[in-house]
Design brief:
It contains 3 helices and 19 strands. By secondary structure, it is α/β, with parallel strands linked by helices. Helix 2 links the parallel strand 3 and strand 4. The radius of gyration is 22 Å and the shape is elongated.
């Protein structure tokens, strides 16, 4: 995509200075033509002079750089977000394991990946392209939105609504009684 498009997507300040085609992200030393890199400090900004990158994320106060720039408060974060834009792994459904326990009135979206030992209680709704890793429990009446991923041994209580594109890491418990429950 064009640098100006990436600027809009990541809410970065693009001050002109060229609008190269960006094909990926890489470190200052590894970046070549078509790649964007980042410089998080004054010494890194100096290193941009030797970089073959087509553009860079820099802080708003960075000076003396002779390449197109995207100015952001946190260049490391912008770089990480750009990684997500350029290197998204294509989704491939693994289907529904015969070792999953699925109760009645469960609604499963298209292309789900339901691994062994997942338990889906009654009246659960699972969106499209959702991945549930082994040991996940989803309680009665809960819902999980499209493109979400629940890693191993996540427990979701009753009546919990999880939105789209949510990642919940292993061992997380949502909807349990907290400290101080009365």
């Amino acid at each position: 995509m064009k640098l100006s498009e990436l600027a809009k997507l990541l809410d970065a300040d693009w001050g002109g200075g060229g609008d190269p085609e960006i094909v990926g992200v890489a470190g200052i030393r590894e970046a070549g033509e078509g790649y964007i890199t980042f410089a998080a400090g004054a010494s890194a900004v100096k290193d941009l002079a030797q970089s073959k990158a087509s553009a860079a994320f820099v802080t708003p106060d960075a000076e003396g750089v002779n390449m197109p720039l995207l100015r952001v408060k946190n260049p490391r974060l912008a770089f990480a977000r750009a990684l997500g834009v350029f290197y998204q792994k294509p989704y491939a459904s693994t289907g529904i394991s015969e070792k999953a326990a699925i109760e009645k009135d469960v609604v499963l979206g298209d292309a789900c990946s339901i691994h062994p030992f997942v338990t889906l209680a009654e009246n659960v709704t699972i969106g499209n392209r959702v991945t549930l890793y082994p040991g996940v429990y989803v309680g009665t009446g809960s819902s999980i939105g499209d493109d979400s991923v629940l890693y191993a041994n996540v427990s979701i209580g009753q009546g919990i609504a999880i939105g789209k594109r949510v990642i919940i890491h292993a061992g997380t418990v949502l909807g349990s009684d907290g400290f101080g429950f009365v």
